[in-house]
Amino acid sequence: MNGITEALASIVLVHGGFVDGSGWEDVHRILTKDGYSVTVVQNPTTSLADDVAFTKRAIEAQGKPVILVGHSYGGVVITEAGNHPGVKGLVYVAAFAPDRGESVSSLIKDPVPGAPVPPILPPQNGFLALDKAKFAASFAGDVSAEKAAFMADSQVPWGVDALTGAISEPSWRTKPSWYLVAKDDRMIPPAAQRAMSQRAGSTVVEVPGSHAVYVSRPKDVAALIERAAKEVAAKEAAGKQVTAKQ
Predict the structure, then answer these.
(1) Which of 124, 173, 180, 237 has the fewest Cβ atoms within 10 angstroms?
(2) The domain spanning residue 210 has which CATH number?
(3) Structural domain count of the chain
């Protein structure tokens, strides 16, 4: 790795709803092999406030600037937690990128006609789950049948309070962002992903992939994260050079 990359080599990965951080395993392997320091946040997905607090603790533990990455609902978490001064860039992976006052609930209340309907079961004791029989088709259509079945069976209950948690101030308004659109997503429609990424002014990459694109196409996901880290590091280095000349 060159000096610029080494100057900003801390990546914090945030998972979404219904899953835990283990899905980042292959992305983690690629990033660490390339010399990056990587932390996988294990959010409880009980409420936005709790998940933001968990993520901020991970950010503060780095001791260096951070590229914050979120998948799905994790995009809501990084949009709020990204206001932390240690965060220098945001990467959304088939994720929600809400604006001020928005939540997952508000973003999905008016689906586009004809859009796939995620097989979310009625809440039980304040938590949601996906229908196991429909999990693969909706969440992980390009993941092996064996892995998709494991993901369905190891679901993490997703708190209703997490869905209604609203953003106070979106960090993408003041920080650069990158967005990976999963073109075959049946959880968050690709059209919605494009609209949110455009609103955020993100640098966008589109790849074939299901909602579980971070599992099925880890090389593409890792490549965008590394691109974000390098571009932010180069900008920071250029800024320091300008300051030094003044």
Answers:
(1) 124
(2) 3.40.50.1820
(3) 1
